[in-house]
Specification:
Strand order of the largest sheet: 1-2-3-4-8-7-5-6
Structural class: alpha+beta
Order of helices and strands: HEEEEEHHEHHEEH
Shape: elongated
Strand content: 15-25%
Distance between the termini: 89 Å
Helix content: 40-55%
Largest sheet: 8 strands, antiparallel
Radius of gyration: 23 Å
Number of helices: 6
């Protein structure tokens, strides 16, 4: 082998190797995004909502949105990114209209962070149900309304779905909102989000009922 060729060959091999890795990364990313888009399309089909394709940008990963009316309520399901680099997290969110004026509420699972918050004086609302209070942390600005909202059937529904409710469920102004670190690339997470949508339907209906007594 000529000396010049033997000097160039390692460079050629290196370029081919790097090119192969880049091609593989692009392929896997495209497969992952294809699964995500398919899962959003499935949600749109199942709940008879609109699938909104994101504007494609080569320098940025954008996510589809599912939007429309579900039992006379406006619903929007999508994903958002928090942080960057190794701290980057992808959240899936569900926003559903309801009637909820005059108070706000958040529900998260009882856990280490919740216990630390209590230790350092974090305020939460005790519902008076030992099992429920042990399972969830409730925060809000109107204890009377929130206790009324969380009647026996609503508490039971939330406890039964505890394994799915790993994020934060909120009552905002005329809106029920949920988000968690879920990536919609995976079948398991798709099934969880389906179930949470059904939970939120029931929860939003309960907020409407409570509003009549305020």
């Amino acid at each position: 082998m000529d000396a010049p060729l033997s000097n160039i060959l390692p460079i050629i091999i290196s370029f081919l190797f790097i090119g192969g890795i880049i091609t593989l990364i692009v392929y896997l990313n495209n497969r992952q995004m294809e699964k995500l888009h398919n899962n959003f399309r499935r949600l749109a089909d199942e709940f008879r909502l609109n699938y909104i394709e994101p504007e494609k940008k080569w320098w940025k990963r954008d996510y589809p949105v599912v939007d429309g009316m579900l039992l006379d309520r406006h619903v929007r399901i999508g994903m958002r990114v928090v942080g960057s680099g190794k701290h980057r997290q992808e959240y899936t969110y569900i926003s559903m209209d309801c009637t909820s004026k005059g108070y706000t509420m958040s529900l998260t699972q009882e856990g280490f962070l919740g216990k630390v918050g209590k230790f350092f004086g974090g305020q939460d609302i005790q519902i008076g149900d030992q099992a429920f209070d042990a399972a969830f942390i409730i925060k809000g600005n109107n204890e009377r309304i929130i206790k009324n909202l969380l009647d026996a059937s609503t508490k039971r529904m939330l406890v039964e779905n505890r394994s799915n409710l790993i994020g934060k469920l909120e009552v905002r102004h005329n809106k029920v909102y949920y988000e968690a670190v879920y990536q919609m690339y995976y079948e398991k997470n798709y099934r969880v989000i389906r179930q949470i949508i059904k939970v939120m339907e029931t929860f939003a209906k309960r907020t409407d009922e409570v509003q009549h007594y305020i």
